[in-house]
Amino acid sequence: MTDSASAPQIPVTVLTGFLGAGKTTLLKHILKAEHGLKIAVIENEFSETPIDGQLLGDDAVQVMTLSNGCVCCTINTDLERALYVLLERRDNGELDFDRLVIECTGLADPAPVAQTFFVDETLRERYLLDGIITLVDAANADRHLQEAIAQAQVGFGDRILVSKRDLVSPEQYDALLERLQRINRRAEIHAVEHGSIALERLLDVRGFNLNADIGLRPLLRPVRPAADTTDRITTLVLRSEKPLDIERLSEFMDDLLQWHGNSLLRYKGVLNIAGEERRLVFQGVLRLYGFDWDTEWRGDEKRESVIVFIGDNLPEDQIRQGFEAITGGPAA
């Protein structure tokens, strides 16, 4: 019997991407890799192919242990119930796992999956959403990315994995990378072949941790604007070297969430607050967000506030004007 009150949080990795992008292939690679981890997997009945054959029966949540000790949970009910089933069986000693991977359907919106780990208090205490991994099929990306849900999957990602690179020309691949970077400038992008990729690229991503790591490295790469882009999901970056008044900042964020909260897929900020030696860090998913004080600014570093929004049809000019109003200067 596990003492759930003292048990460490279970890291959760979410796999998303359109049908045929290679989620199941990647999942099999994760399960078969020599990592010594005890991984539980939640997949639903609409995935391309079940991990270990079709599970029989009519139960809404079916759990089986694979030969290597990993746990497979197939669901045809809501995710929350499946998460509780795994916790119950882990706590009473029926199952043994220390990580969880969730494979979403190709047409799934990652937002409700991510929100599950913030809304329910018990799930928030027992699980830790570590990162969202989005797979993109290079050969079919142009067609898939015509769909807003596919763009949202890219926008939510902490890591973007591009499969079938060998089926497109170098010019097509480079154009796809630029498009993915315009949609999501926070995420690292890696090519993946037949689901094979180093696990450190996928695990312990800490994409939802409240810290000062805002993913600035992708932001340093210049991204050429696309004059004819029709993508609804894009990245907006606000910067200011002027210390921010925390009350005016709060008003700015409250207004933004009130009017555009449902369009803010992911957002994160590291802020220089007037009269405060510590960084203020915050992040959110849609209307759910958290904030905390981080470490003190070092004497040799530039105190700069940076906010990254990944949103759906955000009014960029309006948001920039609102930010300029509280900083007294143009947002970089």
From TrEMBL:
Signal peptide: none
Protein name: GTPase
Catalytic activity: GTP + H2O = GDP + phosphate + H(+)
EC number of this enzyme: 3.6.5.-
InterPro entries, per database record: CobW-likC_sf, CobW-like_C, CobW/HypB/UreG_nucleotide-bd, P-loop_NTPase, Zinc-reg_GTPase_activator
Gene3D superfamilies registered for this protein in UniProt: CobW-like, C-terminal domain, P-loop containing nucleotide triphosphate hydrolases
Organism in which the protein naturally occurs: Pseudomonas triclosanedens
Keywords, comma-separated and alphabetical: Chaperone, Hydrolase, Nucleotide-binding
CDD domains xrefs: CobW-like
Residues annotated as domain CobW C-terminal: 233-327
